[in-house]
Amino acid sequence: MERPAWAPRSIDISVPSVSRIYDYYLGGSHNFEVDREAARRAMEFMPGLPKIMQANRAFMRRAVRFAADEGITQFLDIGSGIPTFGNVHEIAQSACPGARVMYVDHDPVAVAHSEAVLEGNENADVLAADLLKPQEILSNPQVQRLIDLNRPVALLLVAILHFVEDADDPYKAVAELRDALAPGSLLVVTHASYEGIPLPQEQAEGTVDVYKNIRNPLIMRSREEIARFFEGYDMVEPGLVPMPKWRPDTAPEDEDPYSFSGFAGVGRTA
Q1: Which UniProt keywords apply (predicted)?
Q2: For residue 251, what are the CA distances in angstroms to 14, 189, 244, 247?
Q3: Is 187 in contact with 178 (CB distance < 8 Å)?
């Protein structure tokens, strides 16, 4: 397999990557056959996976515009993935030219491609780091250059928490990040769930097994379990809802049934 120029020498391109699988669902070009094969296996059980990912991205863009409308000019996107059209910095800096965006991901391909996309953008940067080590993120000089924790921040944890197992205590990491944020900050979350998927849970479990087999377990939490990530926040209306129902631009009834899989929400610190 020939290694493309955008793939760092340090990565094993024979092993599937969650970021590159996600890129494939969105119609991107930064993925390998091993990623496409895993994605196709997952779609055998859940054909609407690309629709779910598109709904996820559409929600993220609406949430970023909402944050900008609320006067927030700092965005910390952890688990940011491979940039695609309409990413956080594009939406935020379009709404507010001085907006500052810090991307964080532990996937080398996501980091390398983000560096290329952000070249020359003084108000956006990317850091290779792990959500489960929040203090390392918050104390990093790159982050501190762009993000002033004494002012409100929009913290994005979009489609990342469902890749963190309970044994790794994602609630603790999210609480540590919350405690570092200034009053008026926002938490933006999307999370996979069996609730809302338009097919039997037994069939959806086939997709979960595909992710388990590539050593990236997909943790399907209930709405109640997802709501726990917002402890210490006041929920922004309409609360924790299926993605197309959060402040939609178009009528939710026009959306694909798969788009209603899982939940999205925004919380505000007091």
Answers
A1: Methyltransferase, Transferase
A2: 42, 22, 8, 10
A3: yes
Neighbouring-strand partners of residue 140: none
Q: What is the spatial distance between Cα 75 and Cα 183, in angstroms, rounded to a whole number?
A: 15
Which residue type is seen at 174?
Answer: V
The string of pLDDT tens digits covering residues 164-206 is: 999 999 999 999 999 999 999 999 999 999 999 999 999 999 9
Residue 247 burial class via C-beta count within 10 angstroms: exposed 0-12, middle 13-18, buried 19 and up: middle
For residue 95, give every residue at least 6 positions away whose Cβ sits within 8 Å of its Cβ, in sequence order, or none.
64, 65, 68, 69
Question: In a 10 Å sphere around its CB, with 0-12 CB exposed, 13-18 middle and 19+ buried, how is residue 267 labelled?
Answer: buried
Name the 3-class secondary structure at 231. coil
User: What six digits make up the tokens of 37?
Assistant: 């094969």
Separation CA 217–CA 38 (nearest Å): 13
Q: Indicate whether this model's pTM tops 0.85.
A: yes
> Going along 170-252, which residue ranges are E strands?
186-191, 233-235
- Give the largest Cα separation in the chain, rounded: 52
